[in-house]
Design brief:
extended; mainly alpha; 6 helices; 3-stranded antiparallel β-sheet
Length: about 270
């Protein structure tokens, strides 16, 4: 009687289990590697910093026991204006960033970092809290045009020299940045804006009939044709936003990295 061969069923099962074990072993290694590469980075760079920022304790303006707490809020048309600013791509040519000292301090650059005179010196670096409450931090992509961190002060100075209000000067600049009226000085001092490469925002304006004395912010008033060019709502909101750009409010001592005695240093630099 011949010897019968032993069935290979058990061996087949053993091989199948080995293959599955090897497959899941490799899969687990891949998943662990993916978590280590992306999960830990997300945890360290986004989750933990966000959780810390959401639960920051209030900060006092100074180390004194009775010092006030620092508060900054941004609401209303400022937020709407920031959205229009972003939607029209203003950030592609304009920055809102006074660079920190370790990147080349811009504290002493004229019209950029704040106000400096015999009575006050508000110049400081940009701080992340300057953008609190806004949907985006408008740091900017390039600086083809001037930095706008403290545009509000610059517009007031231009307006005083041309005899306009700061709002009308800004509205006129949005309509035609190279308009000759923007160069007229009240005391014969011209403001040369011919260098500006800012595009005209004509879509923010419309022509209307001239009624009575006309609109105070009207441009191109034609008394013969009885027409006037007036800013639309988005132009007014954007102008309001730009005029609020005075990012030099006092910061707590623990948050202010501006060089000490910046006013004295600026005087020495002159």
């Amino acid at each position: 009687m011949g010897i019968m061969e032993k069935p290979l069923g058990n061996q087949t099962n053993i091989n199948s289990h080995s293959v599955l074990k090897l497959y899941f072993s490799d899969l687990s290694r891949v998943l662990i590697g993916m978590f280590a590469s992306f999960g830990l980075a997300w945890l360290c760079m986004i989750a933990i910093p966000t959780a810390k920022m959401a639960s920051l304790p209030p900060v006092k303006m100074s180390g004194e026991e009775d010092a006030e707490y620092y508060q900054r809020k941004t609401t209303g048309r400022v937020l709407n204006g920031a959205q229009i600013y972003a939607a029209n791509g203003c950030y592609t040519c304009h920055s809102q960033l006074i660079r920190p000292t370790y990147l080349g301090s811009q504290i002493f650059r004229k019209d950029f970092a704040g106000v400096s005179n015999a009575d006050v010196d508000t110049r400081r670096e940009t701080h992340y809290d300057d953008f609190r409450g806004e949907e985006y931090a408008q740091l900017g992509l390039t600086r083809m045009g001037p930095d706008l961190s403290n545009y509000g002060y610059r517009a007031e100075a231009y307006a005083a020299r041309t005899g306009m209000t700061a709002e009308k000067w800004t509205v006129a600049h949005l309509y035609n940045p190279r308009d000759e009226e923007l160069q007229l000085g009240e005391q014969g001092e011209a403001i040369d804006m011919s260098w500006s490469n800012c595009p005209s925002q004509l879509h923010m304006f419309e022509e209307k009939d001239l009624v009575g004395q006309g609109y105070s912010l009207a441009l191109n008033v034609n008394t013969e044709a009885m027409t006037q060019t007036v800013p639309r709502e988005q132009a007014l909101i954007l102008a309001d936003y730009l005029l609020t750009l005075k990012r030099d409010s006092a910061l707590p001592e623990s948050m202010n990295n501006a060089p000490k005695n910046s006013g004295a240093a600026a005087a020495d630099a002159k």
